[in-house]
Amino acid sequence: MSSNRPNTGPDDGLSDSDRRRRALERRLREALTADRPMEQDNEADDTAPEASAPTPPARSNGSDIWDRLPRIPVEPARLDRNLVITANRHDPAHGAFDVLRTRIVQAMRDHGWTRIGITSPNPGNGKSFTAINLAISLSRLSDLRTALIDMDLRRPGLARILGLRDMPATADFLRGEIDTATYLSTFAPNMLNIGDKLALGVNGRTDPYAAELLQNPTTTEVLTRMQEELGADLILYDLPPALAMDDVLAFRQHIDCVLLVVGGGETRARDVREVQRRLGEDLPILGVVMNKAELDEEPGYGYGG
């Protein structure tokens, strides 16, 4: 029996902006699968290739140091204004971060990984937005100890998002000038169910020698000691944009995998390929987040020489 129904494609009936977004997603997937046999999607992929990850430090009790961390007051209105959508959970999009959380936890446990670098190809893609929303979602898992560290030493993002001033400098911590309990903070008891086993390293000052500091042997010692003291199961490092300077390359030895944040309608497929080339085949990309909320960086992100 013949049918008079016209043939329709998967993109028929979509708006022009939705067609462009789908076309970008297809190009990104092609770029990501061109050079390595691993499928990626717009959240996270728990089928990342096997890699010889460094042996994670032994987990300690960590209870003493958690009790001594300074408490950051929770301001729901400020979090709403800065699009921390997983805090109040009013925006339905918060559910995407819960899905991302679950997939990341499963993948990290499967591979024995504990340290994720969160980066983007370029400024303005939403990496810090993704990092803080993912961290708050992770904090609601009662059996997980998580740390989120602002490792963008040239233009810190977390302090701006959380509205915090006069915070310790990440550079001082990495140089061993302040200890873990002085550098880190956690959220005060609150009505939003943000867990008290989320430690925050909020960077309070820029540093012009970021790449050199990130490669310093002292940095390795400090970060290893921090993870041991916290007994941390998962550490998220909010890194600079990967194509801006050489900071991410300098820090790659300290992470097990990468979560790549791309800006919908902005990121080009060749930028994603260049990030992969710079990171190298031995550092897995755990997943790709397609972000449309571009809070992270404002125009004029300052990565000049």
Secondary-structure topology with pairs:
Layout: H1 16-34, H2 63-68, E1 71-72, H3 76-81, H4 85-88, H5 94-111, E2 115-119, H6 127-139, E3 146-150, H7 158-162, H8 170-174, H9 180-183, E4 185-187, E5 198-201, H10 210-214, H11 217-230, E6 234-238, H12 247-251, E7 257-263, H13 269-279, E8 285-291
Parallel strand pairs: 1-4, 2-6, 2-7, 3-5, 3-6, 7-8
Antiparallel strand pairs: 4-5
Helix pairs in contact: 1-13, 5-6
Detailed description of the structure:
It is a single chain. The protein is an alpha/beta fold. Helices cover 38% and strands 12% of the residues. The protein contains 13 helices and eight strands. It has helices at residues 16-34, 63-68, 76-81, 85-88, 94-111, 127-139, 158-162, 170-174, 180-183, 210-214, 217-230, 247-251, 269-279, and strands at residues 71-72, 115-119, 146-150, 185-187, 198-201, 234-238, 257-263, 285-291. The longest helix has 19 residues, at 16-34. The protein is globular. The relative contact order is 0.22.
